[in-house]
Specification:
- The chain has about 625 residues and is mainly α.
- Among the domains are: about 1-330, no CATH class; about 540-635, no CATH class.
- Helix content is about 70%, strand content about 0%.
- The chain has 34 helices and 2 strands.
- The protein has helices spanning about 1-60, 65-70, 80, 90-100, 105-130, 145-150, 160-180, 185-200, 205-220, 225-245, 250-255, 265-290, 300-305, 310-330, 335-345, 350-360, 365-380, 380-385, 395-400, 400-405, 410-420, 420-435, 440-450, 455-465, 475-480, 485-490, 495-500, 515-520, 530-540, 545-550, 565-575, 590-605, 610-620, 625-630; strands spanning about 260, 265.
- Strands 1-2 form a two-stranded antiparallel ribbon.
- The chain is elongated and about 100 Å long.
- It starts with a helix and ends in a 5-residue tail after the last helix.
- Residues about 1-15 and about 295 have low confidence and may be disordered.
Length: about 625
């Protein structure tokens, strides 16, 4: 009987072992299946997200406009390279300057940013795997790329800060991989990596210090080295600024951490910096308090974090993509893109496209107003359609306000170049170099200026610099031939036009009131732009008497008739002088303009000259000088 019960117990135990073994194999198969599905899903999700990033950057942001906004400088010249090795963060600036050149073409710029985002994502995933006993939390490693996408939606956000973040993340992974168990070996590793990273990225090395300190405290649970780590990280910039580098103490700590040149970090940048320490905290929490093994694959955390079903993966993926879309929508700046497009079209001489942008009803800034008025002149519409665009800035809409000229120095130089004021164009080109450096467009302007002034030696100097750029070698080669044969240069139609419209005598240009030079330019009777800009200036400032004094100069140019805004002004003048206005021989005011003027006056009379009461009916004449004078003109004190 005892043998019977022993045999029965053995069978029961054997049955239990078989069931347990089968459950273990089932769990093992489930884990293996989940890992295989994770790889497939990761590849699919990566392809979808990277495609979205590329399409968004290419079609929505247009990296060419990033180049337009920042004008990054990079020359293949040893002297250019050397200056970047003399201060902390210079090496990263040099690398960023090279890669920023790829923004010159939108497809290459979009590919570059996608590659950088992918590199940040991969390094974040390596960091999580290095300190997590479980598989990484789904999509956590993608979060930095989403923040970077939002940051690069700002056209002024510099690539140098993104690359600095990447170098920081890479250095953290190197430390974790190489950190030895003995403190005596961990300390020199930290000292070397901190010093190297500080030299490469300047202030962003403090992010590395913070992550390593959290890693030591939360993951390794070691605090012996922390005082040395903190002291070294705090003193390194001070020692460097006092002995090796010629930088201010404040810049030694803050450079590339809180700002870069004129760009000041926003709250989104600080969220990106805080993300890596937060990852350390989250993963440490998961490692300690969320233990997932084969025995709890069906628990909530098991299903949510590791053993995810297809439906769970799909749901989480859709939610994440939705958040990416919301972030992209939130960070996109439509007004800034419109401004940069207008500036881009103006720089390339696509005047019709400038006017198309202006007609879309976008908010007009002072610089945009100047570019739109330039476009109206170059398309032959300034004297007929100037008031079809709201002139909200008066005469500052011709030369831009004094407070903006330093920041948009090259655009200011463009206007003087159009007016054939070559010396003043040269002056503002150098102001542009002082503001933004030896950018390709600044150098091109100086080449053209010195060719017009027949200073070929100086033009050759700037052509040699352009030959050391990446994208402007062809332009430099094309203009190199003008150094030996000036006849080819003067055969160019634009050069011929500028030569014949240049001032006939010397005079001073007021730095604060450049519009005063226009009357001097009228002495050259071939300078049509000077004439139209002067007459437009008189209209915008309400100086009708001064306008009428120079009206006879209309006969110097081949106008088929009297421009519409000139007709409107002549009718006002005739009304103010009791019909004793000036007439132009061979040119009469059109009957249509007279009819509209009479209707305009009758509407005002009906409302007893109350412009507020008459506004509703007078809106149909908002493209006239009469409407501007009544509603928009603001006399200066």
């Amino acid at each position: 009987m005892s043998q019977y019960f022993c045999r029965q117990d053995w069978f029961r135990k054997r049955e239990f072992d078989i069931v347990a073994e089968s459950k273990g194999q089932e769990a093992l198969q489930k884990v293996t299946s989940c890992k295989s599905q994770d790889k497939i899903w990761a590849l699919l999700f990566t392809a979808i997200l990277m495609s979205f990033y590329f399409a968004y950057l290419l079609l929505r942001i247009d990296p060419e406009l990033i180049y337009q906004s920042q004008e990054p400088v990079f020359l293949f010249d040893p002297h250019f390279f050397n200056e970047f090795f003399s201060y902390p963060g210079g090496l990263n600036e040099l690398i960023s300057g090279f890669f920023s050149q790829f923004f010159y073409y939108s497809p290459t710029g979009a590919l570059l940013l996608v590659f950088v985002f992918a590199s940040v994502t991969w390094n974040t995933k390596l960091l999580i795997r290095s300190i997590s006993s479980n598989r990484p939390i789904l999509y956590l490693h993608w979060v930095p790329s989403v923040l970077l996408l939002a940051l690069h939606s700002n056209y002024r956000f510099p690539l140098v800060l993104t690359l600095g973040f990447l170098w920081t993340l890479l250095t953290v992974n190197v430390y974790i991989r190489l950190a030895a168990s003995k403190a005596i070996l961990r300390l020199p590793l930290f000292l070397i990596l901190q010093a190297m990273l500080y030299y490469v990225t300047a202030g962003q090395a403090f992010v590395f210090s913070l992550i390593v300190i959290l890693y030591e405290v939360l993951y390794c649970r070691k605090i012996v080295l922390l005082p040395l780590y903190i002291l070294y990280a705090a003193l390194l910039p001070y020692i460097g600024a006092s002995t090796i580098f010629i930088v201010r103490i404040h810049d030694a700590y803050a450079m590339h951490l809180t700002s870069h040149n004129s760009y000041q970090l926003t709250w989104l940048s600080w969220v990106l910096y805080a993300l890596l320490p937060l990852v350390i905290v989250l993963v440490t929490f998961e490692r300690r308090y969320v233990r997932i093994g084969q025995e709890n694959t069906n628990s909530f955390w098991g299903k949510f974090l590791c053993y995810r079903s297809i439906s769970t993966r799909l749901f989480q993926g859709v939610i994440f993509l939705f958040l990416v879309a919301v972030m992209a929508l939130y960070s996109y700046d439509k007004k800034e893109k419109a401004f940069l497009l207008i500036d881009h079209y103006a720089r390339s001489g696509e005047w019709d496209r400038v006017l198309d942008m202006a007609q879309k009803g976008l908010p007009i800034s002072n610089i945009v107003q100047c570019q739109v008025n330039r476009a109206l002149y170059h398309t032959g519409q300034l004297c007929d359609e100037m008031f079809s665009v709201a002139q909200l800035f008066g005469s500052d809409g011709l030369f831009m306000h004094e407070s903006l000229r330093g920041h948009y120095a090259l655009q200011h130089s463009d206007l003087f170049f159009d007016l054939a004021l070559i010396n003043e164009s040269e002056h503002w080109a150098y102001e542009a170099i002082a503001a933004k450096g030896d950018t390709a467009w600044n150098l091109q302007r100086l080449v053209l200026v010195y060719l017009l002034e027949e200073e070929r030696d100086i033009a050759a100097k700037y052509l040699r610099m352009l030959q050391k750029t990446i994208w402007h070698k062809a332009w430099a080669a094309e203009h190199q031939k003008y150094l030996s044969d000036s006849n080819d240069f003067w055969a160019n139609p634009r050069s011929q036009y500028i030569r014949k419209t240049m001032p006939v005598s010397d005079f001073l240009v007021s730095p604060t009131e450049p519009e005063l030079c226009l009357e001097e330019l009228l002495n050259n009777t071939k300078n049509k732009m000077a004439f139209e800009y002067f007459m437009a200036y008189c209209l915008l400032e309400g100086q009708i008497g001064r306008f009428m004094k120079h009206l006879h100069r209309l006969n110097y140019f081949d106008y088929p008739g009297i421009p519409r805004h000139f007709e409107e002004t002549m009718l006002i003048y005739n009304q103010l002088t009791g019909g004793k206005g000036i007439s132009l021989p061979g040119k009469d005011i059109s009957e249509e303009t007279i009819r509209k003027f009479n209707d305009f006056n009758s509407i005002r009379a009906k409302h007893k000259n109350s412009k507020e009461a008459a506004y509703g009916e007078l809106k149909k004449y908002r493209d006239t000088y009469w409407f501007y004078g009544l509603y928009h003109h603001k006399p200066k004190e």
